## 1
Amino acid sequence: MPEKKNEPAFTVTDRRLFRDDGEARTDAAEPETPAAVPPATAEPASAAKSGIAEPEMVVPPSAAEQSAQADAYKQTTRALDDALGKEIGAPRPEDLEVTLERFLASIYMSALVQLGLAHERGGTPRLDLIGARQSIDTIAMLQEKTKGNLTPVEQNFIQNALYELRMAYLEVTNAIARPPQPGEVPGPKK
């Protein structure tokens, strides 16, 4: 019977730059730069003058890579839909489809939660005016960017959502800015 050599199954390399006492290690291994990351280039003159660093342009995946990734995604999604379809009471694939209306409804509900107008059952409302403003501005941006490409139902949905959220935002911010009146009970009006 051949003898097994006592070779480690893996090698541990300590890449920490400092010892436990906080002193720099002289024997630390140099950190490796991943091959996929291109080397840093000199800053453009406009960025150097303004003092603002421009973001590096990331090379997008090739058309073949995008196609292969999209095909793999679709295959995995179909397999998941098939597995879910075997469960009793599981949602149908059509129920899980992302539509513009469902996407907008998600942002709409987030804004309501951020305005403190919706919360978990038994939970307390939390106010996030900056988040609410960003959610409302996101819907407004989507309205502008999709102008002329929406169905009448989608257009109606986005207009109503923006109107309701902007009115709610005004009510909440006005209520915060206005001091309580004598005899008024604090809290939402019923």
## 2
Amino acid sequence: MQYFIFVLLICFFIFLYCVYVLSNDDFIFLRRDVTMEKLFNIVFLGGLVSLFSSRLFYGLFHSKVIISNLFYFLLIPYFPGLSLLGGVVGIAAYFLFLSLRKKSSLPLGRILDFFSIAFLISLPVGFIGFLMFAPESTVFIKAGSFALTYFILFIIFLRFLLPRLLNGKLKEGTIALIFLLCFSMVSLISNSFPAISVLNYFKNFENLILIAVLIASGVFLTKQENLFIQIKRLLRF
């Protein structure tokens, strides 16, 4: 059995604890009757969807063997391999499904904001766990860079963005959109480092998905926070 399953479990528990700390006694959640039971149901169901999609993406883009055999696909501890992009796409698809339900009265944007912050603090732990067993120096440096980058982003989100959300200066869902922007940019920059041609870079389907996520999150963020209007106001001064 591979060690990484234990790192994955540690990251999940850190994620759960962070979601609990952020959500406990939150005024909006209390007012809209979002109990911890409902919230953790979303966490576990979303986690299963995210795990499936991350495994599927890994099989499609990195190891065809994984999806060629159901036995390989399901036994993750013995045949490791997950796609971070696939996990993000999976949870986004799950929340899109929840938003389309007519009876849903959950503040999904706020939940996604808290999930994004919790995910940011679990990412450095995951990369540190990965680099501890990295066989190559290049992998070690890459994982360490990811861990440092996401830890800095976590501090920025926690220190500057979360207080603005709690004070009502940011709309619900804005932090999640900023997270998607940062995640896609970090991933695209990281994928550009190997010595490959520009044509091969854009032939990579994962890069195309990341570009689509970057553009879509930028458009939605601009629309949600009325960034063009705010920029015009700043230019007047």
## 3
Amino acid sequence: MSGLYYIGDGPMFGRAVTLRSLPSRDDHNAVISQATRDEYGMGPYSYALSMCDERSVLVIEARGTIHYAAGGGIGLASLVGRRAAAILTDDHIRDRDRLTMHAVDTNTKFATGGFTLQYRAGRMLTPAEVNVPVALHQSLVTPGDYIFGNVDGVVVIPEIMAEEVLEAAVIFTRAAIVIEDMLISSGGVIGVDVKGISGDVQNEMMRRFEFSDRQLEPLEKNVTDLV
């Protein structure tokens, strides 16, 4: 997912707690609210917040709707207070200045479609379902997926692939650091003077970093096609 506004110092990382919104309609809103209160003792939005802890990313699907906020300083104070890892939404949020201030204090990150003064609940969209599959920016997010993001964008890592993806990310991030340093210091050309994860690059990686046995496996296959 790209084109999101990002608040926070450093990357976000955590497991998805999802909140799905539906188009607002008074009669259906009342049914949703009553059903959720009967089951959980609170509305869907509050229930989603209550499920978050420091390992959680609250993912709010807004169906591409903008101009009405998915939350603001008051609503998201619970998220910040619980030290949640982040909130991710394709909707707008309110109170950017206060949330930015709190993000510094608690290290909670925000990736959002934008910012607005408008409230949303009960107008355009209504929080409806908690911990169900949701879609943001044409990307599927299921409960428990791992969410990684920074100022460049956000990626969704399915739980079943998480270990493999994270191990590979360590390898390629470290390789990129070494290759960039080599190119900058030598003035060389990628693909000519430095050919991907070559033997020289691997030797320098081993000199700088420690790797687990699982991380060493692809390096031992002499991968050279990273450009």
